[in-house]
Write a structure and sequence with these properties.
Largest sheet: 12 strands, mixed
Distance between the termini: 76 Å
Number of strands: 18
Strand content: 5-15%
Radius of gyration: 30 Å
Organism: Flavobacterium omnivorum
Protein name: Murein L,D-transpeptidase YcbB/YkuD
Helix content: 25-40%
Shape: globular
Family: Belongs to the YkuD family.
Oligomer: single chain
Keywords: Cell shape, Cell wall biogenesis/degradation, Peptidoglycan synthesis, Transferase
Domain L,D-TPase catalytic: 303-471
Structural class: alpha+beta
């Protein structure tokens, strides 16, 4: 009996194991669609008509209809055609969706024979599926473009979505829900609309020779005034003078502010560069940003931090309301801050800083070679592979890459007094800095990839959400001890490091410097 029990137990174990594996395999398979019951009087479709599309998703859809047409409703067809015609408002190209052929079919819809109706139905479904895919994930795959982007693809089941649209009583509303719903995307669409209303421009490039200040008189003043008038920062005058007058000062400050420049009325190289952007270039910039926003997460979370890298700004948003704003410092061009989404998990007070490989190779080792005192001055301790402390005068270049370099906590630590951690494959995080004066700079692409945050203690107090144990007074007491302390962030707060260089505010066009030179390249990928 004992042996029999053991045998039965083994059979039961392996049966469960086999069943678990079987279930795992089933989950990976494409879930078959339920049979779709077309409305009205459908037309039969010859399945060979689908072969030329070479599209499995499309074939599966019509297999589920038992190879019958589904777009019997003239109202729904026209809503889809109108939506595809206006796809340029989303930064897409209407010609990608077979519009000419679709409209030709629609004009003859009532007189089409069975073959014509079948062809029209298939082409309409195919075009709609393509449009849905472009709305939800864009037309270019960022994972193939960028090494330092880590955004999950926005999952969409095309056939299930088409069925939902078919069954909807409000097709227009349902299509609208497929579009990115973030306020920035909507402001980008508004920016495109505003820009399209500007007349054609044929300005010649303004050359920068020296900084122009108020009351100066130079030949380029008139050209600059014409640009300010064109972009509606300055009212048109009957006569333009070459004098940098007070009216121009006000207009230029407005222009500088819209472009993220120092609104100091000084016309330097940065201001001239922004003035030289044409309407065509700005349109291309907006189109690139509209594409980029289709890659970003559709759901940011109920409470999240969002950082716009080119704007050097952090926003904390809860239930669509911005609660906090902080200036930030981001990675410079050679050490870009990655684009990613994650969740904040931990606060580190009085963090140590282990020097990462790139900074070690490019900054620290060269500094040590110039002077061994660099290690003492920077409060960096060196440890060998066994964990033994290596004094500055024992340090050897031949072993330099095998050592671990750790900067002790304290006021002069590169990470400052606090670090905010979120899981990511780039090992980046938010942190304080020992160079707080850098936040006064306009161009703040200065870091080695991580994001430095202004006034991080106030942000940390909010995130820890414990007014008794972790108010500012308690945080200050912890920092004064200069001992490293880890504290878990209990509330769920997502974090998104993103990149956009254009939008609109109160019917004004807003632009930022494309610090990583991504816009023009992306536009070329979209249109070529």
């Amino acid at each position: 009996m004992k042996n029999l029990f053991i045998i039965l137990l083994l059979i039961s174990f392996f049966s469960c194991k086999k069943e678990t594996l079987k279930s795992a395999v089933v989950l990976k398979k494409e879930i078959p669609m339920l049979l779709i019951q077309p409305e009205g009087k459908p037309t039969n479709i010859d399945s060979t008509l689908l072969l030329s599309f070479n599209n499995k998703v499309l074939s599966n859809f019509y297999k589920a209809t038992n190879y019958r047409t589904v777009w019997q409703s003239e109202e729904k067809r026209k809503i889809i055609l109108e939506e595809l015609s206006r796809s340029d408002e989303e930064g897409l190209q209407p010609e990608d969706y077979n519009l000419k052929s679709l409209f030709d079919f629609e004009k003859k819809a009532r007189s089409l024979d069975s073959l014509g109706l079948a062809k029209y139905d298939i082409l309409l479904t195919s075009s709609l599926q393509k449009y849905i895919a472009h709305l939800t994930n864009g037309t270019v795959n960022p994972r193939k473009l960028y090494k330092n982007w880590d955004l999950k693809e926005n999952y969409i089941d095309l056939n299930t979505t088409v069925v939902q649209l078919l069954n909807s009583d409000s097709l227009t509303y349902e299509i609208e829900q497929l579009k990115p719903n973030h306020i920035v995307y909507k402001r980008l669409k508004k920016a495109l609309q505003l820009l399209n209303n500007f007349p054609k421009d044929n300005f010649k490039s303004i050359k920068f020779t020296k900084i122009i200040t108020p009351k100066d008189t130079t030949a380029s003043i008139i050209d600059i005034k014409k640009r300010l008038i064109y972009w509606k920062d300055m009212q048109p005058n009957d006569s333009l003078t070459p004098i940098y007058d007070q009216e121009m000062v006000t207009a230029l400050k407005r222009f500088q502010s819209r472009h993220g420049l120092a609104a100091d009325a000084k016309i330097g190289a940065g201001t001239i560069a922004s003035l030289n952007f044409s309407k065509t270039q700005r349109t291309q910039q907006i189109l690139a940003n509209l594409e980029r926003w289709k890659w970003f997460p559709k759901q940011m979370g109920n409470e999240y931090i969002i950082i716009n890298i080119p704007d050097y700004k952090l926003l904390l948003v809860k239930n669509k309301d911005t609660l906090r704003t902080h200036r930030v410092i981001v990675g410079r061009t050679k050490r870009k801050t990655p684009i990613l989404s994650s969740t904040l998990t931990q606060v580190v007070f009085n963090p140590t800083w282990t020097v990462p490989p790139t900074i070690l190779r490019e900054d620290v080792i060269p500094a040590i070679l110039r002077s061994r005192e660099y290690l003492t001055q920077s409060n960096i301790k060196v440890y060998d592979a066994t964990g033994r402390f290596v004094s500055p005068y024992e340090w050897q270049l031949s072993q330099a890459n095998t050592y671990r370099y750790v900067q002790s906590p304290g006021t002069f630590n590169s990470l400052g007094m606090v670090k905010l951690i979120f899981p990511n494959r780039f090992s980046v995080y938010l942190h304080d800095t020992n160079h707080r004066d850098y936040f006064e700079k306009i161009d703040r692409s200065l870091s080695s990839g991580c994001v430095r945050v202004e006034n991080p203690l106030e942000l940390t107090e909010y995130l820890l959400h414990d007014p008794v144990s972790w108010n500012l007074e308690k945080i200050t007491e912890t920092l004064q001890k200069e001992r490293t302390k880890f504290v878990k962030i209990k509330k769920e707060v997502a974090i998104h490091l993103l990149y956009w260089t254009a939008w609109s505010e109160n019917n004004n066009l807003i632009f930022r410097d494309d610090i990583y030179n991504l816009d023009a390249n992306l536009y070329n990928k979209l249109r070529n």
